[in-house]
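Working notes for the structural subgroup meeting. M.R. asked for a predicted model of this chain before we commit to crystallization trials. I am recording the input and output together here so anyone reviewing the notebook later can reproduce the run.

Input as submitted:
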Amino acid sequence: MSTREDKENLVDCFSGSLGKDLLGAERPIFDGMVSDVFGFNAVQVGFPQHDFLAHSRIPNKFVMSESSFGQIRGLPHQNPIKSNSIDLVVLPHGLEFSINPHGVVREIERILVPGGSLVLSAFNPMSLWGVRHLLKKCTVKGNGVPTELLSLWRVKDWLKLLSIEVEAGRWGFYRAPVHSDKWRERFLFMESAGDRWWPILGGVYMLKGVKKVRGMRLSIDRWPSYRSVRPAVGSTHKETAKVIELGGVDE
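Returned structure, recorded in token form:
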């Protein structure tokens, strides 16, 4: 899958009435998970047209995107941000549409400070959204359909291997993912029933993790010398732009 196809599909993820309902279900959870994270620098990866850091109390907020709409231009699996410089990374659906999802997680671990937080969302393959994905994958080929949806347990294993400890998680959007507003309203009862009776069948899952380092000891001495992320991305910005112009990195 090309980088261009990934970008176009991500833009469509929250478009239309179905996408707006999905955004309405995810935003309150994102807001709650980011509101109690403190620090100096926060980065949102993707979706520059939507502000998932609106409720974050961190002063320096940036959006990294493959397009020119973000403050930082870079690839999710090969970003230009300095290591150990970010307190919070927000990743809305940045794994399932990536050409290298495991590389995305590795990069996030690299740029997070010890004790830094990651908040992500992804589609659940064990749901009606997963069935919709399989049908779309079989009927629509070569149009930016992600090759695979990642299960919660697989993502948690990746995070664990990279010393990112999951602290909280939520399931959401149990309704059938149909484009008809009328039919989605008819399935609205599934939201309350799903939370109670079949939570693991939610259309999306959201995780909040914290980077843990063995022998880590937080000291107040580090705070005065901790600076904005802006200087950290300047030196490699041109290199990243060149990678994007070439169409990404082949695996």
